[in-house]
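Translate sequence into structure tokens.
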Amino acid sequence: MTIRAIRAAVFATLFPLFLASGQGATALAAESHGLAMHGEPALPADFDHLPYADPQAKQGGRLRIGLQGAFDSLNPFNLKAGSTAQGLEGNVIQRLMARSQGEPFTVYGIVARSIEVDDSREHVTFHLDPRARFSDGAPLTSADVLFSFELLKAKGRPQQRSAYGLVKHVETPDAQTIRFDLTGANDRELPLILGFLPVLPKHATDVEHFTDATLKPPIGSGPYVVAEVEPGARLVLKRDPNYWGKDLPMQRGLNNFDRIDVSYFRDANSLFEAFKAGVVDFREETNTTRWASGYDFPAVREGRIAVETLPSPGPKGMEGFVFNTRRPSFQDARLREALGLMFDFEWINANLYSGLYTRTKSFFDESELASTGRPASEKERALLAPFPGAVRADILEGSWRPPVHDGSGRDREPARRALELLGEAGYRLVDNALVKDGVPLAFEIMVANRDQERLALFYASSLQRIGVAASVRLVDEVQYQRRRQKFDFDVMFGTWTASASPGNEQRMRWGSASAAQEGSYNLAGASSPAIDALIAALLSAREQEDFVAAVRAYDRALLSGFYIVPLYHSSTQWIAHSTKIARPSTLPRYSPLFGATLESWWRTEP
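Result follows.
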């Protein structure tokens, strides 16, 4: 026996003992096909396909998607990618694992065939599928995964840098294995976040210019390759006939189109007209007026377009006017609450939106995670005890609601209460202008489209009733995204989608460290020890009961900050599509029901 063989035999004998002693990188770890945030994965190790995918789906044909706006990059992982072309992630660039929309938060293997995690979640090992290949034929190995991790940790988007920065050490013992040491992170979601690591080819990635926007088609390991690019206007994806993972359980019944054409339109009207003319195959409608009266056209009447109202499961997120508290005038919560009192949802919903919306009351509305309407539990109160005053009494008791107007558009009671709060904050009316220390209160509301502009103009008119001078400025998509990234705004529209398992992303939305990080989603500039502690609590929760308590307490802290004027949401999803494409009858349990390129759909006829 050679010396190398003897060493290998000794290592094979001692390594399991080393692991069992708790000193190894995967102490007490169990290898699994998937990982759930809480509990066990719902799908067994031998599952054949996702419950909302049809393995018998017809393959072939073309899908035509229409999007509003433009794009200036094909790199979705850097700061300068303010408007990246959609459809690249998942289709071209794959992650180690992928999420099932049938569960609150569970990931299953794609590039990584399995995962090992110890009970404390301080060590995680990914075992790669040896079949994995990039579209240029190069094998995908642990060296590519390590390269991607280090590159995105150094030059990726803020949320990636923040999460990956918690990793203590990484090692690659062989070409199909990569281990992460998470000791000290105290973040039970981090193994799942690492499962979302996008894998970039080490041999074909321009590290020096990675932070620059680029229109060079990326090389990935996914089912599609970039076939055509018209800068800002059009992206064409073509199925890779040599895609290595087509028979993976997580891919079976998905990615059914041979070609995906993604076209961009400058405004909503031109996009809708393109859909009516049959240039686009699918549309998710978000305009209530159009939904209520705009779908009586020949293609619908003749059966060439189907119109559907679908359930919208899972928590409803928050959308609203967000105050930039980096501006001195918005640092007083009493001022922010007062300005929120002037938003007349009842009039707006009846007159602008055909009564189709529901006022949003929580950052996790219509779910067990929402705090509104229920008093804080003992677990919640214990979490909030170190931060007296962080949550208002009425929000702690669950009795707070956004103001209800009489629907006249001129309700005096909310205006009276708003002026009382503004008086407490040091403001007074002088010649019909709201003034503090001799300076009138004036600010700009930045909007990106005509629908936002219409709503903002109505809100500005309501604010004028109490002496607030709010102007509205419409900017193009690229400028909007750049100003958002640099926090160069007073007030703007913000959208915070909610999942059934909020986690690490909350740090980049509301954590103190993200308030000064350019490109983060902490639009409000929130910096609160209570919010930081509650994010840590929801990330470290081991049991579902503790997790729910932490999220509800967190919801209460956000509501108490009055960082946002809550808008509204729909409890259903409105879609219309060509009858030449079809979807599975089983829908995902959680939103989003469909990805940007309708991964579970297929073409029924040419």
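Note: Confidence is low (pLDDT under 50) at residues 1-27.
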